[in-house]
Amino acid sequence: MLNKKSVDDINVKGKKVLVRCDFNVPLKDGKITDENRLVAALPTIKKLIADGGKVILCSHLGKPKGEPKPELSLAPVAARLTELLGQEVKFAADPNVVGPNAKAAVEAMKDGEVVLLENTRYRVEETKNGEAFSKELASLCEVFVNDAFGTAHRAHCSNVGVTEYVDTAAVGYLMQKEIDFLGNAVNNPTRPFVAILGGAKVADKLNVIANLLEKCDTLIIGGGMAYTFLKAKGYEVGTSLVDDEKVGYCKEMMDKAEKLGKKLLLPVDTTIAAAFPNPIDAEIEVSVVAADGIPADKMGLDIGTETAKLYADAVKSAKTVVWNGPMGVFENPILAKGTIAVAKSLAETDATTIIGGGDSAAAVNQLGFGDKMSHISTGGGASLEFLEGKELPGVAAADDK
Ligand code: ATP
Q1: Burial level of 192, CB count in 10 A (0-12/13-18/19+)?
Q2: How confident is the model at residue 375 (pLDDT cuts 50, 70, 90)?
Q3: What angle is formed at CA 236 by the lines to CA 234 and CA 239, rounded to 5 degrees?
Q4: Ligand 1 lined by 223 (C-beta under 6 Å)
């Protein structure tokens, strides 16, 4: 369990509370296309309002690289939050984030009111965890609350630097929930514990593979990373995505699984095509072949039908499932079948099911299985680093209980 001071442990009545949220939502033509992160932030915000705090929200959005970019303004977030909360969230438009406009907006606040600051990454110091901007942020408030799990794997001014200059730094409900779900799954799982890893490259998830192998009972590998494992088994993988430098590592992982008595499931068949679809959702001709029968001029782009069944069966007998990364090029409906089959098997089980953010979270939500999962993480990178067993700087910086 997370041993950090939370919003239940602090008194905010009449105080200015700076809340670091993760409002890094996808935008298209100024409209928010996925508001899960906004909804996930509401419990903490509502609690602080109810407790009579002056609630000053801040977040980054995209990568403006240290300068004001109107298309990355948080203004649309303030508008949508106003609707979701049923109370005004005043937007403190300010190119310096903590400039005269922001300061005036904060000074005018009454208890229970909410202000949203401009995109913290408008300031070049933000991602460098610079002292000056950290102090400016701290000067706005008496209490700091970090609820931005999606940024917890980074040490930036608005989630780490600021904590040095405030008396109280607590975590919010979302942060607590994320760490409790992921922490329990990895360190105290109800067994059998099945971990499913997909996505593009082995290299991106080396430490996750090694760490999860120690913690889980069964590790399932799909997506582009599976072909490096198949190559390590001595199979022909054609033109599939392969990390040649990691073939040795995959062999080591297969040996490790055997030594530890863990099941490491790899595709037994695969969906192949002549080339990567271009554009990605192009209609392409595919066929399914055995994992050791990929022709030299073909590319594996999804797990095959037998593999999908095998993986779904492994999920059926699990009591805890953690899933990160798609099983194939799911952006293309023809190559999404493996990812859909796995998502469906998670939706149908009674096990605790945890989706590790990013692409897998998007896939599960798009397929309409979102409410069938025990927990969908709001942080892709952060959840991965957590699954690697790393300490998250954004969490570490909060006060201990
Ligand atoms: P998550 O966001 O859930 O953490 P991820 O984004 O880290 O997952 P990535 O490593 O970025 O996962 O990989 C996702 C990408 O991998 C998708 O864009 C998908 O198209 C691609 N992919 C999956 N299978 C293959 C494959 N067989 N060949 C090439 N690319 C693949």
Answers
A1: middle
A2: very high
A3: 135
A4: yes
Q: DSSP of 20-82, one letter per residue?
A: E------EETTEES--HHHHHHHHHHHHHHHTT-EEEEE---S--TTS--GGG-SHHHHHHHH
Please identify which residue in the block is written with the tokens 């409410």.
371
Give me ligand 1 centre to Cα 58, in Å.
30
Instruction: Find out whether the beta carbon of 200 lies less than 6 Å from any atom of ligand 1.
Output: yes
Give the orientation angle of helix 337-348 with respect to helix 305-316, to 10 degrees.
20
Residue in the structure block whose two tokens are 């990390």: 243
* pLDDT tens digits, 111-140: 999 999 999 999 999 999 999 999 999 999
Judge if the beta carbon of residue 53 lies within 6 A of ligand 1. no
* Ligand 1 centroid to residue 330 C-alpha, Å: 8
164: confidence class by pLDDT, cuts 50, 70, 90:
very high
Tell me, what amino acid is at 340? I
**What phi and psi, each to the nearest 5 degrees, are found at residue 366?**
-60, -35
> Of 399, 339, 362, whose CA–CA distance to 25 is shortest?
362
Ligand 1 atom closest to the Cα of residue 357 is: 3
| Active-site residue list | 37, 201, 358, 381
Tell me phi and psi for residue 225, to 5 degrees.
-70, -20
Nearest protein CA to atom 23 of ligand 1, as residue: 328
Stretch 312-321: mean pLDDT:
97
Checking if the pLDDT of 1 tops 80, the result is no
Q: What string of DSSP letters covers 207-237?
A: HHHHHHHHH-SEEEE-STTHHHHHHHTT---
Give the whole-angstrom CA distance, residue 94 versus residue 116. Answer: 11
| Mean pLDDT computed over 86-97 | 98
- What is the average pLDDT across 161-165? 98
The tally of CA atoms less than 13 A away on the side-chain side of residue 262 is 26
Name the residue at shortest CA distance from atom 18 of ligand 1.
329
CB 23 within 8 A of CB 162: no
Rounded Cα–Cα distance for residues 68 and 85 (Å): 27
Joined together, the tokens standing for residue 376 give: 């969908």
Report which protein residue has its CA nearest ligand 1's atom 19: 329
Q: Is the CB of 238 under 6 A from ligand 1?
A: no
